[in-house]
Design a protein that fits this description.
alpha+beta; 7-stranded mixed sheet; 5-stranded antiparallel sheet; 9 helices; 14 strands; 31% helix; elongated; binds biotin
């Protein structure tokens, strides 16, 4: 009678079936006939679902009905009815890793397809930009790496970070409107405090990108006490601003849909189409800032972000564009 499924595979099938028929109760016997597995196997797989945090209702006949899913960043949860063409359609999820970007690089070297994502509930050596640490405790944030294989030239790669930031801003804006800003080039802020950061790593030859790893860290459900003392005053989470817990899986799925849309537009039109939205979200527009570019420190007023994603500054009576740099002071 058995199809020789593992209990996890059988649990996946039961989950998918019961979840796709939300109004119905199912007996163990019905599921046993449907999946051609012994009733005892169905019970083991069902109990597995309960231990993973899925909730089922039981009626007086001991029939079961799917009620709710846990907010676990598992590939089953992320992949369930994920409405994208390729972004996130291959998904590797982990409980605890050093850094999702490291796993992404290994997978990219082994020819993982474009749009592959790696998620973790916790990182022990999460990396930020400029050699910083990305604090990655379990159960509260999203730690994500995306593998991209764009066909454009390496020069266009930096613009992708802005597109990721834009997709993040749009996704967050659906929850906490009007407070979301993008701080060029890589940060997403809510009410001036950092909520998400992006760490891109490029593997390229002279005129060709082999792959691009986009690491994204998003503070979703952290409370103030969850942040280490040195960043408490400059970091925030979506939960803090929304005043309620946010479902990480839903957030991630919305982000993947949004990012895929922006990525396809970027490949066709660079930033020509999205520049206007980027400017609307910019935290720096019309502000006087100091930019650290290599060893050079430049002070000027931000007047634009151009179609290559460079920050355009008015410095005295000169206008100059910078494609990389760290904003050290923003008044
Ligand atoms: C920044 O400094 O703002 C960038 C932070 C990027 C953090 C993410 S979390 C997932 C991925 N894995 C890492 O080790 N870093 C990135």
């Amino acid at each position: 009678m058995s199809l020789n499924l593992t209990h996890d595979q059988l649990a996946d099938k039961i989950l998918f079936h019961t979840r796709s028929n939300l109004q119905s109760f199912f007996s163990i016997k019905t599921l046993s006939n449907l999946f051609k597995e012994d009733a005892s196997e169905i019970i083991v797989a069902y109990n597995l679902l309960l231990t993973y945090g899925y909730v089922y209702d039981k009626n007086i006949n001991d029939e079961i009905k799917f009620t709710s899913a846990p907010d676990t960043l598992s590939s089953t949860e992320i992949g369930y009815k994920l409405n994208t063409k390729f972004m996130g359609q291959t998904c590797h999820s982990y409980n605890k890793v050093k850094s999702t970007n490291d796993i992404a690089s290994d997978l990219a070297e082994q020819n993982a397809p474009e749009g592959t994502i790696i998620t973790a509930d916790e990182q022990t050596e999460g990396r930020g930009r400029l050699g910083r640490v990305w604090h990655s405790p379990p159960g509260s944030g999203i730690y994500l790496s995306l593998i991209l294989r764009p066909e454009f030239l390496p020069e266009q790669a930096p613009g992708i970070s802005l597109i990721v930031a834009l997709a993040l801003a749009e996704t967050i804006n659906e929850i906490v409107s009007d407070k979301v800003k993008i701080k060029w080039p890589n940060d997403v802020l809510i009410s001036g405090k950092k909520t998400a950061g992006i760490l891109s790593e490029l593997s390229a030859e002279k005129n060709k990108i082999n792959y691009l790893i986009i690491g994204v860290g998003i503070n979703i459900n952290q409370t103030t006490d969850d942040f280490p003392d040195d960043i408490k005053n400059i970091a925030t989470s979506i939960r803090r601003s929304a005043g309620r817990k946010i479902n990480r899986v839903n957030f991630l799925k919305h982000f993947l849909i949004q990012f895929e849309k922006e990525y396809i537009i970027y490949q066709k039109h660079s930033l020509k189409k999205s520049r206007k939205k980027l400017l609307q979200y910019s935290s720096l527009l019309n502000k006087e800032i100091t930019l650290l570019s290599g060893k050079e420190e430049i002070t000027g007023t931000v007047i634009d972000i151009n179609t290559e994603g460079a920050l355009v500054l008015k410095i005295g009576d000169k206008i100059k564009a910078f494609s990389i740099g760290e904003i050290t002071i923003a008044k």
